[in-house]
Design brief:
Order of helices and strands: HHHHHHHHHHHHHHHEHEHEHEHEEEHEE
Number of helices: 20
Distance between the termini: 64 Å
Structural class: alpha/beta
Shape: globular
Oligomer: single chain
């Protein structure tokens, strides 16, 4: 195909065919280049617009994907599931009203597709939640889902998080309050409702952490790494490996399912992990990277211990702690001279920290510097995305602090 196009670069069908071949070979970049060439030849090519739109959904460029697919539909593209793809792209960028319209057209074209019916019902629930009560949203959902209805409480919780993530705070407060009225002992809803209302906390409550992550454990790795594009462990490992040293003992604070465990195996002789969630610790144990695992809060564990470590890691942990003074103080007491404290945090404005509507704390870089001064030297600082929130990168830092002798 490439050789033939070298002879005739304006042959649209050949560019489309090449794009298909490159996609089949899993070279998405080359496939995209071929489709862009096709659109250079014919900007109104329904086939090229459709294929490029679907490719950009795969690469999470949802706004661009929606624009391309909408253009293809406007030009008469009639693939049965194209409205569903448009709806999904719009939903993932928070264009909920337009997504609802696209899902309605998708279900009209494919009325027996259970997955599409459920997407439409969820979109109807969310759209109704923006202005109406929980009871009205439930009625709207049931009218669409019918016999294919999912657990309505799970739908409500997921919608609550989406409303927070995309900044619909008034609607989130209304829905969250109704949910909490139905489930008054639910610490996850209560804490997130506090956060979106702007109430202050020094750190996330232990009961919230346990309840949230026990329920999250089974899908934690898949969701965090793939859906939220969390790659902080890989980047932190690169920074630590560049030190060209080996650590005798390492402590992983908030180890979760042990995502950083395999990296610690390449860096240290002996490894311990600490976490509040027993279900997460079960996953970490099964991973097999740690010699010891402890069910405990990070500061409490360090205060009760008299052990020293050469490396202490706290990745995606500071986002659940606002006031970092107690943690920094006790870490400095438990690190061996010249030991390393590796942290990640979401970057915030102001002088100290702030609880965000997402329920996660953001810390200013200046605050970290002030707390570390006198006890630590900052030897590495990588500005990088911490994860996705509402399909947008969350800016933050990975920092290595060296304990002064």
């Amino acid at each position: 195909m490439t050789a033939s196009l070298a002879l005739r670069r304006d042959h649209l069908p050949a560019w489309l065919a090449l794009a298909n071949v490159e996609s089949a070979l899993n070279d998405k970049l080359a496939s995209e280049r071929a489709l862009l060439e096709a659109l250079r030849i014919d900007p109104r090519s329904k086939e090229a617009l459709t294929a490029l739109g679907l490719l950009r959904i795969e690469s999470r460029r949802y706004a661009s994907a929606a624009e391309l697919i909408r253009s293809a539909l406007d030009l008469g593209a009639d693939a049965p599931y194209l409205h569903a793809c448009l709806g999904q792209a719009l939903f993932l960028i928070g264009e909920f009203s337009q997504a609802l319209d696209a899902f309605e057209k998708a279900v009209a074209a494919c009325p027996n597709d259970i997955g599409l019916i459920r997407k439409l019902a969820r979109a109807r629930f969310l759209q109704s939640s923006l202005n109406e009560s929980l009871d009205v949203a439930k009625d709207e959902y049931s009218a669409v889902a019918g016999a294919e209805a999912e657990d309505i409480d799970s739908v409500g919780r997921a919608t609550f998080q989406l409303l927070i993530g995309f900044g619909h705070h008034d609607a989130a407060i209304r829905l969250g309050s109704a949910l909490l009225g139905n489930f008054p002992d639910d610490r996850v809803i209560a804490y997130h409702l506090d956060a979106v209302r702007g109430l202050s906390h020094a750190k996330a409550p232990a009961r919230y952490i346990v309840e949230c992550f026990d329920g999250y454990a089974d899908r934690f790795d898949e969701h965090l790494v793939k859906a939220l594009e969390y790659d902080v462990p890989t980047k932190c490992h690169t920074l630590l490996a560049a030190l060209n040293g080996s650590f005798r003992s390492a402590l992983d604070l908030g180890c979760g399912t042990g995502l950083f465990g395999p990296f610690l195996e390449t860096l240290s002789d002996r490894r311990a992990g600490v976490d509040l969630s027993p279900r997460m610790l079960d996953k970490a144990k099964a991973r097999g990277s740690y010699h010891e695992l402890f069910e405990c809060e990070a500061v409490d564990f360090l205060e009760a211990s008299d052990r020293q470590f050469d490396l202490i890691v706290a990745l995606d942990v500071l986002v659940y702690i606002g006031d970092l003074q107690p943690l920094i103080s006790v870490v400095s007491a438990r690190l061996a001279p010249n030991g390393i404290f590796a942290i990640s945090f979401e970057r915030g404005d102001g002088e100290t920290y702030k609880l965000q509507p997402t329920g996660r704390f953001a810390h200013s870089f200046a605050y970290i510097e002030r707390l570390a001064a006198g006890t630590f030297d900052m030897i590495a600082n990588l500005e990088t995305s911490q994860r996705l929130e509402a399909n947008a990168p969350v800016p933050g830092h990975i920092v290595l602090l060296r304990r002064k002798p």
